[in-house]
Amino acid sequence: MTITIYHNTACGTSRNTLALIRNTGVEPVIIDYVKNPPTREQLLDLIARAGLSVRAVMRDKGALYDELGLANPDLSDAALLDAMQAHPILINRPIVVTELGVRLCRPSEKVLEILPLPQQGAFAKEDGQAVVGADGKPVA
Q: Where does the chain cross the membrane (predicted)?
């Protein structure tokens, strides 16, 4: 079983998602997508498999998004992809791939939808918010 996470260590949501994956007892393939971005074809495949639009996978926070005028609704998918290829930090994260599917894991607990193994114990996010109880089940 292979789980792959397109990860950014500077992102709390990405770190929490990675920790939830590890809470199943699996060590995923970790791709630092800022240093090793997916190819355009790989990115398009991830977007399609996640059932998202190109715009939905674009990170819209930060100065770079504004500086490049990426909020313009008239920009084509190709233009948005060009921006993400030129500036991988614009790819929203984390994206997780398992045998059960692909998800943009925002919030981090979205990863629970596609993890093939159960949580092995309690889990709380970095901010202390409980996500999984001691029984390994999601907290309501």
A: none
Contact in structure between 57 and 31 (CB atoms under 8 Å) = no
Active-site hit among 3, 11, 80, 111: 11
Judged against a pLDDT cut of 90, whether residue 140 lies above it is answered with no
Q: Is the pTM of this model over 0.90?
A: yes
Phi-psi region of 69 (alpha: psi -120 to 50; beta: other; left: phi over 0): left
**Exposed/middle/buried for residue 8 (C-beta within 10 Å: 0-12, 13-18, 19+):** buried
Q: CATH number for the 4-132 domain, one of 3.40.30.10, 2.40.50.140, 3.30.70.120, 3.40.190.290?
A: 3.40.30.10
